[in-house]
Specification:
The complex is a heterodimer. By secondary structure, chain A is α/β, with parallel strands linked by helices. Helices cover 38% and strands 28% of the residues of chain A. By secondary structure, chain B is mostly helical. In chain B, helix 3 runs antiparallel to helix 6. Classes of the chains: A alpha/beta, B mainly alpha. At the A-B interface, helix 1, helix 2 and helix 3 of A face helix 1 and helix 5 of B.
Chain lengths: 305, 256
């Protein structure tokens, strides 16, 4: 559906996307990368707002730049939080439905269906300038789906959504994927992506670092020891219990005995062991965190691999 | 689709909040028309109307056109709402053209209201103004010509409004008064030719004559200016449509 071949995009002296080649087909795919990785640049190129400086992009076999034929089959939910603020949510979606080529009555009907789908029917008559971030995200999704496109591109769509909203939104994306649509979602939050899909494109500094199944990438990461910090008021006892575990690589006490920092292999197995220890030995753990469990660390591992 | 593009844009331009400043200025022009008799008791009604229309109305026409035309694309880019328009299955040239038609209609309407109000201010009954229909025609042509020029400027430059205002109040004030035939390059001079107001009897007040573009004798005729205005407008709009279809319109600061 979407084919990117050696596409690069320069902004003057700055490179936004660097020699990216990939294919994106039906199903839910996540475009993962830190801020400034080139996710939005890639989405803008696919949506034909900008052209690649070198290389090529085709969507359904056609170049997307300023191509209405492509837009008939594509819905786009931009990252920007800008709207026609004086319009109500209903007017906004209806306006864009009309621009998608529907008659007034058809557009009205589709608008109602979409507002219902994104859970905005009851609030759609309020002016957009009074909307919360979550409501804005839902309205943006409604306008992207209004013409029932085969390809839906969403740029950081979960920003600003509350946990319930996220769950509903992700469920909706899954439904679209099940219907056979090509859904590409950009995000910079690894956890968010993990709950969404296993199929990812990993961008870093404009380069496509990895593609494919997230579990494979996770596997690569798991070759490296993970750092885990445990806060407890009995660090020595905790160390005594944890040290015999087979996953532990190293163990270090924090200053003033505020907790301990571990390096472990196979983090998932370790977490299972940790919860058993807490329950079996009544170990008092006030918090634990993994400083490594973020995108930056993922990139560091992958680049160093 | 085309009709929707036109009507939705026109509806936006016709919002009361957007129209109100121009209506206030049109009423001010009418008040000036009514007061002119006291300022210049020897002047005829035709001279009173002619002075107010060239000193104020046609100057405002350029200003209205600058404001409405730059809103077609520049405002959408600045507000970052352009993305919603550019990712719809509408050819870009069509999007531009029908939004431009709406802006021309809005500018013509505002200009026409001005002509009607000033005619009422001077003649009481607009139909007793012998220049009434000619001025309505000139207002339409002015909306067309200024609109097409400002459209291209708004596509080519980031700070289009500044350039448009410099043109409207700098170029258009000075060029019609310059010696030689450089006034051919002024839209205002062509509008003067189309409107065919009687020549001023006395150019005693050089300040007013300067603003009215009457310091230099304008040898243009309506027969010459009409095709020039139409041809230039068509060429400029065609160039704008070509440019808009070919180049990117993404807010620069959004680029990663």
């Amino acid at each position: 559906m979407i084919t990117i071949t050696n596409a690069s995009r320069w902004y003057g002296q700055v490179i936004g996307l660097n020699d990216v080649t990939c294919e994106i087909g039906p199903g839910l795919t996540a475009l993962l990368g830190m801020n400034g990785a080139g996710k939005s640049t890639m989405l803008r190129m696919i949506t034909g707002q900008i052209k690649p400086t070198t290389g090529s992009i085709t969507v359904l076999g056609q170049e997307p730049f300023a191509n209405p034929e492509v837009y008939k089959h594509m819905g786009y939910c931009p990252e920007i939080d800008n709207f026609y603020e004086r319009k109500t949510g209903r007017q906004f979606v209806h306006y864009l439905a009309r621009l998608a080529g529907y008659s007034n009555s058809e557009a009205k009907q589709r608008t109602e269906v979409m507002l219902e789908k994104v859970g905005m029917s009851d609030r759609a008559d309020r002016k957009i300038h009074g909307y919360s971030k979550g409501m804005r995200q839902r309205i943006k999704l409604a306008q992207a789906m209004i013409h029932d496109p085969e390809i839906i591109l969403l740029d950081e769509p979960l920003n600003g959504l509350d946990p319930v909203g996220r769950r509903e939104y992700i469920s909706l994306l899954h439904d679209l994927a099940v219907e056979g649509k090509t859904v590409l979602v950009s995000s910079h939050i690894l956890y968010e992506v993990e709950t969404m899909t296993k199929s990812i494109l990993l961008l870093h500094r404009g380069r496509l670092l990895a593609t494919g199944d997230l579990r494979v990438i996770r596997g690569l990461i798991d070759k490296h020891p993970h750092r885990i910090r445990i806060e407890t008021d009995e660090p020595r006892r905790a160390a005594e219990l944890l040290a015999p575990l087979p996953n532990i690589v190293s163990l270090r006490f924090e200053p003033k005995e505020a907790g301990i920092e571990l390096e472990v292999r196979d983090a998932d197995a370790f977490y299972t062991s940790l919860s058993n220890l807490i329950l079996d030995h009544n170990l008092r753990v006030s918090a634990f965190s993994s400083p490594d469990n973020n995108l930056e660390s993922v990139f560091k591992y992958l680049v160093n691999t | 689709m085309e009709a929707f593009l036109f009507t939705s844009t026109l509806k936006d331009y016709m919002r009361p909040a957007r129209l109100l400043p121009w209506l206030i200025l049109a009423v001010a022009a009418m008040a000036l028309g009514m007061a002119w008799k006291n300022l210049d008791p020897e002047s005829t009604k035709i001279e009173q109307y002619s002075n107010v229309s060239f000193i104020l109305l046609f100057r405002l026409l350029a200003l209205v056109s600058a404001v409405f035309t730059t809103a077609i694309i520049s405002q959408e880019v600045e507000q970052k709402t352009i993305v919603y328009l550019l990712t719809r299955p509408v050819p870009r040239w069509k999007l531009l053209l029908f939004r431009w038609f709406a802006s021309v209609a809005a500018v013509t309407l505002v200009g026409a209201i001005g002509v009607v109000l000033v005619s009422i201010g001077v003649f009481k009954n607009p139909m007793s103004n012998p220049m009434f229909l000619g001025d309505l025609w000139a207002v339409f042509l002015g909306a067309l010509a200024y609109g097409s020029l400002f459209l291209l400027v708004s596509l080519l430059f980031n700070r289009a409004m500044i350039i448009c205002l410099l043109f409207a109040f700098g170029w258009e004030t000075s060029v019609p008064n310059m010696p030689g035939e450089i006034y051919y390059a002024s839209i205002f001079s062509h509008l003067q030719a189309v409107a065919q107001h009687p020549s001023p009897k006395d150019a005693g007040n050089r300040g007013l004559s300067l603003i009215a573009g009457e310091l230099n004798a304008n040898a243009l005729s309506a027969g010459t200016s009409l095709p020039i205005l139409i041809i230039v407008s068509v060429l400029l709009v065609a160039a704008s449509a070509w440019w808009f279809t070919r180049f990117e319109y993404v807010p620069r600061e959004d680029a990663e």
